Amino acid sequence: MQPLHVPYSKHIEKIHMPYHGLALVLLVTLVHPTSSCTQQEKGSLLQFLAGLSQDGGLAMAWRSNTDCCTWEGITCNQDRRVTGISLASRGFEGSISPFLGNLTSLLRINLSRNSLSGGLPLELVSSRSIVILDVSFNYLTGGLSELPTSTPARPLQVMKSLVALNASNNSFTGQIPTASCLSAPSFAVLELSYNQLSGSIPLGLSNCSKLTLLSAGHNELSGTLPDELFDATSLEHLSLPNNRLEGSLDGIIKLTNLVTLDLRGNGLNGNIPDSIGELKRLEELYLDHNNMSGELPSGLGNCTNLMTIDLKSNYFSGELKVNFSNLPNLTKIDLVYNNFTGTIPESIYSCSRLTALRLSENNFHGQLSEKIGNLKSLSFLSLVKNSLTNVTRTLQILGSSRSLTTLLIGFNFMHETMPDDDSIDGFENLQVLAMNDCSLSGKIPHWLSKLTNLRMLFLLNNQLTEPIPDWISSLGFLFSLDLSNNSLTGVIPSALMEMPMLKSDKTAPMVFELPVYNKIPTLPYFRPGAFPKVLNLGINNLTGVNPKEFGQLQALQSLNLSSNKLSGEIPQPLCTLTNLQVLDLSNNHLTGAIPAALNNLHFLSKFNIANNDLEGPIPTAGQLSTFLDSSFGGNPKLCGHMLVNHCRSAVADQISIISTNLCGSEVFFAIAFGVFFGVGVLYDQIVLARYFG
Ligand SMILES: *[C@@H]1O[C@H](CO)[C@@H](O)[C@H](O)[C@H]1NC(C)=O
Ligand SMILES: *[C@@H]1O[C@H](CO)[C@@H](O)[C@H](O)[C@H]1NC(C)=O
Ligand SMILES: *[C@@H]1O[C@H](CO)[C@@H](O)[C@H](O)[C@H]1NC(C)=O
Ligand SMILES: *[C@@H]1O[C@H](CO)[C@@H](O)[C@H](O)[C@H]1NC(C)=O
Ligand SMILES: *[C@@H]1O[C@H](CO)[C@@H](O)[C@H](O)[C@H]1NC(C)=O
Ligand SMILES: *[C@@H]1O[C@H](CO)[C@@H](O)[C@H](O)[C@H]1NC(C)=O
Ligand SMILES: *[C@@H]1O[C@H](CO)[C@@H](O)[C@H](O)[C@H]1NC(C)=O
Ligand SMILES: *[C@@H]1O[C@H](CO)[C@@H](O)[C@H](O)[C@H]1NC(C)=O
Ligand SMILES: *[C@@H]1O[C@H](CO)[C@@H](O)[C@H](O)[C@H]1NC(C)=O
Ligand SMILES: *[C@@H]1O[C@H](CO)[C@@H](O)[C@H](O)[C@H]1NC(C)=O
Ligand SMILES: *[C@@H]1O[C@H](CO)[C@@H](O)[C@H](O)[C@H]1NC(C)=O
Ligand SMILES: CC(=O)N[C@H]1CO[C@H](CO)[C@@H](O)[C@@H]1O
C-alpha cells in the first residue's frame, strides 16, 4: 500500500520544515545538557509503554537512560519538555495511553503503521499543543466526531493548535469531525481515508477557512455534496473517492485553489460545469465511476495545468469539443465506458507529453489521424469498441510510435482484411497487441514476427485462415497467445511447443501506463494482477498435434484446444504439465480412456473433456473426481458416479489401480462447437489497483 499522501508533497514540505529547527535545538541541548526531562513527563511516556501489549523492543531501548529526552523516538525542546513522539512502524500492539495527553508541550505524534487498537483517547485529541497527529495505518476504532463536542467544558480550546490529523486506514466510525475547524483556526489537513466513516459531508466544513486537504475516500459517506463544501475555498486537494456521495459539481467554481479533485466511485450526476475552466491550478481530475452525463464543457480546455483527466465509466456523450491544444501538461486521458461520438479531435495530438490515451468503449468513428505520431511519449493506446475504420492505415501510422507498449484496438474495423505487407513496420517496443473481435479476414500476418518484444497477442474472434506460422516461436517473450474462434487450419505446429516463455518459469516484466486486467475467470492459483501463461487455440479447424512435445510447455497455466478437429487419445505428455489450471479438450473426437495420470495436475481448477468419444470409468479419487458431470458429459461410453451412466462397482473399485500408461499418445482431431468456458481477452477493463489495492 502506497502512503496516501503521495500527491500532496507541498504539505509534507510545510509540515516537515519545523522538524529541522527542532533537530537543531536538540543538538544544541545535547551538547550542553542542562537537566533532564521531568519525572512527570517520563511517567507519562512509561504509561504509554505500559499500554502496549507488544512494544517492539521499545522497553529495552528506553531502559538504558534516565533522561527521557534521549529516548528513541522522543524529541524535546530547550526546556527538556517532550515535543515529539515519532514511533511509526514499530510493530506496536495494544492501545494508545490517555497519559500522552499530559505532555503539555507535545507538538507532533507519529504512531503510524503499527497495530494499535482501541480508541483515540479523548485526552490526546483535546490536547492544546498538538499540531500534527498521525495515527494512520492502525486498527483504531470508535468515533472521531464525538470527541471535541464531548468536552463541553473547554470546547474552544480543544485541538486549538491542530494543523494536521491523519487517521487514515483505521476502523473509525461515525461522522467526519468538523468542530475542530472552529476550535483550531489553523486546521489545514484532514486525512481520513480508508475508515468506516458514515453520514453526509458535514456543513461545518464551510468554517474550515484554512483547510487545504480533505481526504476521506473509501468510507461509507453518503448524501449530497453540500454547497458548504464549496465554501471551504482554501481547499487544494479534495479527495472523496469510493463513497456513496450524490449531487452535482455546480458549485465547484468557488474552489479556485483546487489542484486535485478526486470524486471517483460515487453516484454524482449532472454534467461538468463550464465554469470548471476557472480552476486554473487544477492538475488532477478524477470523476470516473459516477453517473455523470452531458457533453464535456469547452471550459475544460482552460484548465491549462491539467495532467490527468479520468472520466471513465460515466454517461458522458456528444463530440469532444474541448480544445486540448492549451493543455500541454496532459499525460493521461481516460474516457473508457462513455458515449462520446464523432471523430477523435485533432487537438488531442498536440498534447505531446501524453503517455496514455484510452478512448475505448465509446462511439468514435473515422480513421486514425497520422498526427498521433506527434505523441512521442505515448505508451498506452486503447481504442477498443468504437467504430473506427481502415485497420491497414491504423497499423501503418502506429508502427512508428516507438514508445508504444500497449495497443488495444479490438472491436473495430469490422470485416476488413488483416494487412499482410511490408507497409506495416515498427512496433519495436510493443508488448501487448489486441486486435480481437474485428471479424478480420486474411491470415496471421508475417509482420507480427518482427514484434520481438510482444508478451501478449490477442487475435481471437476474427476470421483468420491458414495454418499457425512456424515463426511464432521466435517471439521470445510471448507468454499469452489467444487465437481462438478463427478458421485456422493445419496441424498444431511443433513451433508452438518451442515458445520460450511457455517452456520456462521465467516471466517477462510488463509495464502499463493505465491499469488493465483481463477477463480470465478467477482461478484460485492466479496471483491477482498477474497475467497467466495461456495458449488458446479453441474453435478453429486445427487437425493435428505432435503430442510428445506438449510436455515441453512446463510453464503453461491454461490450455484450450476445444472445438477443433482433433482425435486420438489424450496425449500422455499433457499429464506432466503440472502448472495447468485450465485444461479444455471438449468438443473433439478424442477416444480411449481418461488417463489416471491427469490426477497429477493438482492445480487444475477448470477441466473439460465433454463431447468427445472417451470411454471407461472416471477416476473416483484425486483431482478429476472433483469436477461435475458437465466436465465429462457427451461421452456415451464414459461412466462414473457423477454421470447418469454409473460404472459397475467392480470396475469403479479398480480405478485406483489403473496405471498411468493410459495417458494416450495418439494424434487427436475434432469438430467445432461452442466453447464451454473461454480464457478471455485482455479486455480493457479497469482495475484501480493502484488506488484501491
Ligand atoms: C498522514 O497525513 C499527513 C498529512 O497529509 C502526511 O504528511 C503523512 O505522511 C501521512 N502519513 C502517512 C503514514 O502516510
Ligand atoms: C495524566 O493523565 C491521566 C490519564 O488521562 C490522569 O489520570 C492523570 O491525572 C494525569 N496527570 C498526571 C500528573 O499524571
Ligand atoms: C509518520 O511516519 C511515517 C513513516 O515514517 C511517514 O511515512 C509519515 O510521513 C509520518 N507522518 C508525518 C505526519 O510526518
Ligand atoms: C460556522 O461558524 C459559526 C460560528 O463561528 C456558526 O454560527 C455557523 O453555524 C458555522 N457554520 C456551519 C455551517 O456550521
Ligand atoms: C444515472 O443517470 C441516468 C441518466 O443519465 C439516470 O437515468 C439514472 O437513474 C441514474 N442512476 C442513478 C443510480 O443515479
Ligand atoms: C476560457 O478562456 C477563454 C480565453 O481566455 C475565455 O474566453 C473563456 O470565457 C474561458 N472559459 C471559461 C469557461 O473559463
Ligand atoms: C506544466 O508543467 C511545468 C512543469 O513540468 C510547469 O512549469 C508549467 O507551469 C505547467 N503548466 C503549463 C500550462 O505549462
Ligand atoms: C485551439 O487553441 C489553439 C491555441 O490556443 C488555437 O490555435 C486553435 O485554433 C484552437 N482550435 C480550435 C479548434 O478552436
Ligand atoms: C449513446 O448515444 C446514442 C446517440 O448518439 C444513443 O442512441 C444511445 O442511447 C446512447 N447510449 C447510452 C448508453 O447512453
Ligand atoms: C486506408 O488507408 C490507406 C492509407 O494507409 C488508404 O490508401 C486507403 O484509401 C484507406 N482506405 C479507405 C477505405 O479509406
Ligand atoms: C471448419 O471447416 C469447415 C469446412 O471444412 C467449416 O464449415 C467450419 O465453419 C470451419 N470451422 C471453423 C471454426 O472455422
Ligand atoms: C487499504 C489499505 O491500505 N489497507 C491497509 C491498512 O493498513 C493495514 C495495516 O495496518 C494493511 O494491512 C492494509 O492493507
From TrEMBL:
Membrane topology category: Single-pass type I membrane protein
Coiled coil start-end: none
Superkingdom of the organism of origin: Eukaryota
Location relative to the cell: Cell membrane
Chief place where the protein resides: membrane
Annotated Leucine-rich repeat-containing N-terminal plant-type domain residues: 39-77
One CC-aspect GO term: plasma membrane
Protein's UniProt keywords contain Transmembrane: yes
Signal peptide (UniProt feature, chain positions): 1-36
Pfam families xref list: LRR_1, LRR_8, LRRNT_2
Entry keyword set: Cell membrane, Glycoprotein, Leucine-rich repeat, Membrane, Receptor, Repeat, Signal, Transmembrane, Transmembrane helix
Similarity remark: Belongs to the RLP family.
Protein name as catalogued: Leucine-rich repeat-containing N-terminal plant-type domain-containing protein
